[in-house]
Amino acid sequence: MMYRRIRDLREDADLTQKNLGEILHCSQRIYSNYERGDVDIPTQTLIQIAKFHGTSVDYLLGLTDQKKPYPKKKSKE
Fold it and tell me: What would the pLDDT profile of 31-67 be if each residue is shown by its tens digit?
């Protein structure tokens, strides 16, 4: 499910794998491997993908169907 969601979000944004690879500072081939599920996506990269698409990691992982990200954590002063 996760791999389909990251592909669908990329396609909805009219981006190529190369475009998103450049945004994530990886090659098109590495990004393609992520979308196919051939390699595990590093946690930091998963966070970057969620932030870029304005969604949550939980949505990407299929733990929720809510695309809207969680409210930002308030900083302690």
Answer: 999 999 999 999 999 999 999 999 999 999 999 999 9
One-character DSSP codes across 3-68 = HHHHHHHHHHTT--HHHHHHHHTS-HHHHHHHHHTSSPPPHHHHHHHHHHHT--HHHHHTS-S--S
28 in a domain, yes or no?
Answer: yes
Please indicate, yes or no, if residue 21 is contained in any of the structural domains.
yes
Residue 51 lies in a domain: yes
Is residue 56 included in any domain, yes or no? yes
pLDDT number for residue 57: 94
CATH number at residue 8: 1.10.260.40
pTM, rounded to two decimals: 0.87
What CA–CA distance (Å, rounded) separates 5 from 13?
A: 12
